[in-house]
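Collaboration report, partner site 2.

Our partner group contributed sequences for two proteins of shared interest, and the home lab folded both. The records are reproduced in the order in which they were received, starting with the first partner submission.
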Amino acid sequence: MPISLRGGFYGGLAVAVCVGLFLLWLWRPERQVKRHTENFLHAIEHKDWTAAGNFIASDYHDQWDDDRPRVLERMHEGFRYVRGLRITALSVSVQCQQRRAQWSGRIWVDGSQSEVMELLKERVNSLPRPFELEWHRGSGKPWDWKLARVSNSALEIPADAY
C-alpha cells in the first residue's frame, strides 16, 4: 500500500503533535523537580559526588550554615562508612511558583547494618517534620533546576559534627 504525500504529511503531523504533548508533560516544573530530587537522592545512594554536585546550585546555602563545597564535603564524609545505602522519599509534594519550587517530603534511610547506619537511621527516620528542598530554575530551559536550599527544622547538625 503506497503512502501518499497527504498521508505522509498527516502522519508526520500526528507524530509531531504527540511528541510535543509528551515534551510538555515531561517538562512540567513539578515533574522536573520530582525527577531532579529522585536523581539527586539516587546520586547520594551511589556516592556519586560529582553527579550530586551537579544538582546543587553555586549559591546553595542551608539552615546548618553550609554552602555548596561544605555540604558536598559533609555528604562525602558522612556517608563514607555507610554501605548499601537506600534513600526513600515518602509523602512528597511539590509547590511551584515562577522560577522556584519547594519539594517537601519525609526521607527514610536504610542500609547494611553498622553503627553509623544505625545512628543515621535513628536521626533521620525519626524526624517528625518533612525535609524541604528549595529548587531554582537556572535558565529558560525547562530541565535546568538546581538545589538552592535544604531545611528541616527538627534536624540539628552541630557545626563541628565532621
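Second partner submission, folded after the first:
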Amino acid sequence: MAREQKKVLVGTVVSNKMDKTVVVRVARTYRHPLYGKVVKVHKKYHAHDENNSCQEGDEVRILETRPLSKTKRWVVIENLTQSASENA
C-alpha cells in the first residue's frame, strides 16, 4: 500500500512574533458551484521555522507534517522571496 503524499502550500508570512513559529496566509481561488463567480479565500497556518529566518512579507513553501504543538502541523521548507526590509 502506497503512502499518501504530504501537502505542500505556498503563502505569505503575516506574523513571526513567536519563537520558531510563523503564521502563513495561504490564498486559494475556486469557482462558485452555482453562480460561477471566481471566489478568493484565504486561511492561516502556523508553521515551524527552525532558524527564525522568515520575516513578515516573505513568500514561503510549507509542508504538512506530524503535530508539533496544539496548532502547529506545518513546517517551512523553503523561503521563496526575502522581504524588502531584509534586502535594504
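Feedback sent to the partner group on the second submission included the following. Residues 8 and 63 are 5 Å apart (CA to CA). The first strand starts at residue 8 and ends at 18.
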